Amino acid sequence: MGAQMPRAAFASTSELRDALSVRGDKNYAMRCRKKQRDALSVRTRYARSVVEAERTMPQVRDRRVVFFGIKNPDDRVTEHTADRLIRPLVDELVSEVETWEFQLLIGAEASKSALTQVLVLETCN
């Protein structure tokens, strides 16, 4: 006859089930610890990259917002938008947000050349 596999001596099936359960629990615990170490490693690398990015980040530019409101004569929509939406919004922001600079261009001030100047200044700074 062929070679027989060694058999463990268990008095009952419940002992066998308990032995397999303990072995399974140990394997599960080892897998969990490995996952925790891997996750910790990922979080550690992320934290280091954030610190490095903040350390090497260029200086923040001035915080500036330009509101541009076209207001055409005989055009109720642009008049209402400029007077009842844009102007109150800027007034509220100016009173609440002190760390930003706000500029309001409405009506004749809101020309193509003014918009071009704002865009050119922003890209050059």
Q: Layout of SSEs?
A:
Elements lengths: L12 H44 L7 E6 L6 H21 L4 E6 L5 H13 L1
Parallel strand pairs: 1-2
Describe the structure.
By secondary structure, this protein is mostly helical. It folds into two domains: 11-57; 64-124. 62% of the residues lie in helices and 10% in strands. The protein contains three helices and two strands, in the order αβαβα. It has helices at 13-56, 76-96, 112-124; strands at 64-69, 101-106. It has a two-stranded parallel ribbon with strand order 1-2. The protein is elongated and about 100 Å long. The mean pLDDT is 79.
The rounded distance between the terminal residues' Cα atoms is 89 Å
**What percentage of residues falls in helices of 4 or more residues?**
55-70%
Can you list the strand order of the major beta sheet? Answer: 1-2
Helix and strand element order: HEHEH
Question: What multimeric state do the chains show?
Answer: single chain
Radius of gyration: 35 Å
What class do helices, strands and sheet pairing give? mainly alpha
